[in-house]
Amino acid sequence: MKRKIIFADFFRTNGVLMGSILIALVGFWLVFLVILPQISMLDYSFRFNLPPAQQGGPRDVYTLSNYQHLLYGSDATHQTYNTIDLMVFLRTIVAAILVTIFDMILCYPLAYFLGQSRGSGFVRLLVVLLIIPYWINEILRAFALRIIFGDAGMINEVLMFLHLTREPIDFIRQDVALYAGLGYAYILLMLFPMYNVIESLDRNQIEAARDMGASWPRIHRRIVIPHAKPGIASGCTMVFMLSAGALAAPQILGGPSSLWFTQLVYQWFNNSLNWQQGAAYAIVLLVSTIIIVLTFMRIFKVSMGDIGK
Amino acid sequence: MKSLNLSRLAFALYLLIFFTYLMGPLLVMSLTAFNSPSFPSASPWECFTFEWFSVLWHDNHIREGIYYSVIIGIGTVVLSVSMGLAASIVLTQIWPRFRSAFYTMIIAPILIPGVVIGISTLVFWDRVGRLLGAGEGSALNGFFHNGLFLTILGQSSFIASYAMLVFVARLQRFDPGLTEAALDLGATHTQAFRKILLPFMRPAIASASVLAFLASFENYNTTTFTIVDYKTLTTVLAQKVRLGIDPSISALAFSIITLTVLAALAVEAFRRHSANRLAARLRGGAAGRLLSGFFRGNVPAVLLVLLSMAVIVTAGVAQRYDPTQCKVAVQAAKKAEIQRRIKALQESRKARESAAPATPAPKAPNANSGAFGNVFAPNNLPGAPGASQTAPAQESPSQKPGNGAFGNVFAPGNLSGASDAPDAAPDSPPARPDNGSGFGNVFDPNNLSGVSGGN
């Protein structure tokens, strides 16, 4: 399939009708569902929130005020920073990174085990067991954790039974439930990419290394992890992006005072009806997460083409 | 050898932790679907009941949500599978120099936060509507603000990427020579596509459709913005869970889990079946025609049948089963428990007023007789040393409201009579009235005060 073709060749290979249908579908997807919506959101984020009558009028000009609001709040003099929103933003990013690392550490041994021991019935059973929670609704999974982490939930009862605590611990207010829930929601998106790449690793390489006297940590560091890097990167990218952009888990498992950055976006849209402000916050979230992912990819030397494999 | 055993043990422990983390919440949630308290909880176990399934069945919001979820799911499958297929075909033919850029573009929607996709879809089509001159109230305006339309577009924009990944994997094994042969033999491009490529892609189309439907069905982040004034199952659920939770949601989750397990078993059973048949054909025997052949050497198929039968039997039993009697008993036990606690409180107050530390108090009436009575509690044995002296005060901390049908029979506080603890009487806290959550306090550490704190 690696022939150089240009546009005319494309229609020669596929025929005019089929070629046009293909182009139309891909074009519709990329232009109308991906590119233009993002551009119009970007455009929106630079505008004032005007009543419909004034839209397109003389006051409908570009402005940075929506972004200034994230930095300085409603303070017009720009003296004090909008610490509440900025802290929420910072915490969202840091917590998403921590959740990613947690999932990565938790998944790696299992991915290695599943990837390297092929065929046995036990492994098949484990894979089926893994797939079941994957198809349960994200909201229902968060709900399950809420039952467990509640004041009178399973975990508090066990802790009190073991004398580890006298009073029930408020896991929801402490955000423990939220972090556990985020790790729980996306853990399989970490596991499956890792499993796929480790499965393709030739067993003989590991055995050769062992015959030469390499220790287990060394085998993992020098052979398995370099081979699994695309899968690890893919899993980490997905878990990070999804948990930074999660909405259901924070809404259900977050404490009353704690807010996830997506919840701020949600509030601007649905409670304050200030779409422009919400769009600005969404752009900030999108751009900063992309920058973080690209930075990490540069540090660990993985390319975009590895994602999703 | 020893270190090998140790590391094996550590790995088994790790597997246990991993699967507890993965499965534990779902199991506990499934249990709560069958317990009668109106707040979902697995302990204390009150009454086994099916009532939450009937509550779920009669919930019109959830029904409506499922209805719209299915409509949106079908629309999303059609749109995203065709776009994903087209993109994967273009990807295999595109000029190599553009390939990685194109790949980045079609994979990007997976990585964009769902919230952002939802917002951008909403904003963009609002603007398109205005550009086309659709004012307030016109039919066109209604179209561009239609929740179903917007949700299908918003979801398709990233679900198409999932579908594309499935197709790319399959297309790598396609031999383009087949299409060329068909064209040489005089087929039109459309015919070649329909008769050669499409049949080859059929398994991938099937799995991409299932994937797309499920992804659409359970999507929340995008849907919550684009749905406007409609509702889907996920938005209904999110609203319910945020406003207050009740076990009918557990019942829904349990139903979904059961369906998932059944579907997984069915897929596995048929996969195993065709593998078996292939093996039999290779051996030269004729097998797989009869039903018995279907089950031979096919564990998933057997499990599938057993589980389906269990579901049917359970559903049948559920029609007859009536937990009213149990509930009445639990109610009565709770009421008696409250009465008793009030009494115990009065007693302990009286005892505290009258009893100086050294003077023996009159033998207190045992306030701790739960539904099962306290026949076996040591306090009922008059010979127990020190029992008469400390009983009232020791009992009081373990008297919490809302102890379930189990009473406090097993609470270690009942054993307090065995230990000699004269000083505990004035210090022990009164019963806490703030604990009326209905969960019982069997595990409350205060119940143990007689053992640990008494000396």
Topology:
The complex is a heterodimer of chains A (309) and B (455).
Chain A: H1 7-14, H2 16-45, H3 65-72, H4 83-116, H5 121-134, H6 138-149, H7 154-161, H8 176-199, H9 203-211, H10 216-244, H11 248-253, H12 261-271, H13 275-300
Helix pairs in contact in A: 1-2, 2-13, 3-13, 4-8, 4-10, 6-8, 8-10, 9-10, 10-13, 12-13
Chain B: H1 2-32, H2 51-57, H3 60-93, H4 96-111, H5 114-131, H6 139-144, H7 147-171, H8 176-184, H9 189-217, H10 223-226, H11 233-243, H12 247-283, H13 291-295, H14 299-320, H15 324-354, H16 387-395, H17 424-427, H18 449-452
Give structural notes.
- The complex is a heterodimer of chains A (309) and B (455).
- Chain A has 309 residues and is an all-alpha fold.
- Helices cover 71% and strands 0% of the residues of chain A.
- Chain A has 2 domains: 1-45, no CATH class; 76-306, Orthogonal Bundle (MetI-like fold), CATH 1.10.3720.10.
- Chain A has helices at residues 7-14, 16-45, 65-72, 83-116, 121-134, 138-149, 154-161, 176-199, 203-211, 216-244, 248-253, 261-271, 275-300.
- In chain A, helix 6 crosses helix 8 (176-199).
- Chain B has helices spanning 2-32, 51-57, 60-93, 96-111, 114-131, 139-144, 147-171, 176-184, 189-217, 223-226, 233-243, 247-283, 291-295, 299-320, 324-354, 387-395, 424-427, 449-452.
- Chain B has 3 domains: 56-245, MetI-like fold (Orthogonal Bundle); 246-322; 325-452, no CATH class.
- Chain B contains 18 helices and no strands.
- Residues 358-455 of chain B have low confidence and may be disordered.
- Helix content of chain B is 66%, strand content 0%.
- In chain B, helix 3 (60-93) crosses helix 11 (233-243), helix 5 (114-131) packs across helix 7 and helix 7 (147-171) packs across helix 9 (189-217).
